[in-house]
Write a structure and sequence with these properties.
Helix content is 42%, strand content 21%. The strands form 2 sheets. Strands 1, 2, 3, 4, 9, 10 and 11 form a 7-stranded mixed sheet that branches. It has a 5-stranded antiparallel sheet with strand order 8-7-6-5-12. The protein is α/β, with parallel strands linked by helices and 333 residues long.
């Protein structure tokens, strides 16, 4: 895996702006009377260690290209914080006041020290905070939809114009989901696979395919599930919640590996797409570097206008997705 070639790809076309945040994976945090530990087994997994180490290497390489780069550490605090919301607020306050040392794993601090990266260049965010932020966006989206229903007979078209998406739910209304025309543009995938057979339920898309065709799994199942009744924020919304915690002055690079989670790439892609569609005036470039089990790299890039307005209207798009809705037992909200 050649970091320099990745950097060349990212910088050769001037795709990324000068200010960049590198999201180095997602690490659980646990509290006890002895302090804090990280990772399910008391330390970051080899995969979590790998993604952070690659993020630091990428940071150093981009600095050589005169980019203003910072490292993001996303901490999963939903199950391991004994003090509940009070302790989460304390952690958040510490981080806001640059008291970060206790919330960075020692192995990560060693990697940072080896590269001479000060803790000022590391930003820490909590998953609980990101979930709350994206939950508010989803509630605002649903409220806006209900308002349109009461004032516009063609509320679906109005929603489509605003978000470039159709909002969906299961027949029992237990899910909040969406889809967008981008997910149905499969020309590149059809060319790679030599036809559309890869979309069938019987076909399996291998990790080796994703090196050349990283969006294939996503477009095979072009529904993004964000929220389940009962308060369960799903993984794409969790990643969207991370993006909520930055503004449009930065571009993003996400580094994740599939060894701990076979479908982590798809979760990140769906989160980026959801952020594009639902965060007001979202205008950032987002690169994704996903490492498969053979340490081959899947690289994808969403420019600011990748999910731009479609040539079709909501009626045309609704007709196009009818088969998909039936397969998933879903309907338009």
């Amino acid at each position: 895996m050649d970091i320099d070639s990745i950097v060349h790809t990212l910088t050769s076309q001037n795709s990324l702006r000068d200010k960049i945040v590198i999201d180095c994976g997602h690490t659980p945090i646990f509290s006890s009377h002895d302090g804090y530990s990280f990772g399910i087994k008391g330390e970051p997994s080899p995969t979590e260690f790998l993604t952070f180490k690659l993020g630091v290497k990428l940071h150093d390489a981009l600095k050589r290209h005169d980019k203003q780069v910072s490292i993001n550490l996303y901490l999963s605090d939903l199950i391991g914080i004994k003090g509940g919301n009070d302790e989460r607020r304390k952690i958040h306050q510490d981080i806001q006041h640059d008291q970060k040392t206790a919330y960075i794993p020692n192995v990560y601090k060693n990697i940072l020290a080896e590269s001479g990266i000060p803790l000022d260049n590391v930003t820490i965010h909590l998953q609980s905070k990101g979930n709350d932020l994206f939950r508010k966006i989803m509630r605002r989206t649903r409220s806006g939809l209900e308002l349109l229903k009461s004032t516009h007979t063609n509320y679906i078209e109005e929603t489509f114009k605003k978000t470039n998406s159709l909002l969906l739910s299961t027949e029992d209304q237990s899910m909040f989901s969406l889809t967008t025309p981008y997910l149905f543009d499969t020309d590149e995938e059809d060319a790679y696979f030599g036809g559309s057979w890869w979309k069938s339920n019987e076909s399996q898309i291998k990790q080796s395919d994703l090196e050349n065709c990283p969006m294939a799994r996503l477009k095979k199942n072009p529904v993004i599930n964000l929220y389940e009744t009962g308060g369960r924020v799903l993984c794409p919304a969790t990643y969207g919640g991370l993006l909520c915690q930055y503004d449009n002055s930065v571009d993003h690079i996400a580094i994740y590996a599939r060894a701990d989670d076979e479908f982590v790439g798809e979760k990140v892609y769906r989160g980026v797409i959801s952020a594009n569609l639902l965060i007001d005036n979202f205008s950032r470039n987002c690169a994704q570097i996903i490492i498969n089990n053979e340490e081959l790299v899947e690289h994808s890039f969403f420019e600011k206008d990748t999910l731009g307005r479609s040539d079709m209207d909501s009626t045309q798009f609704t007709k196009q997705i009818q088969d998909m809705l039936q397969r998933n037992n879903m309907e338009l909200i």
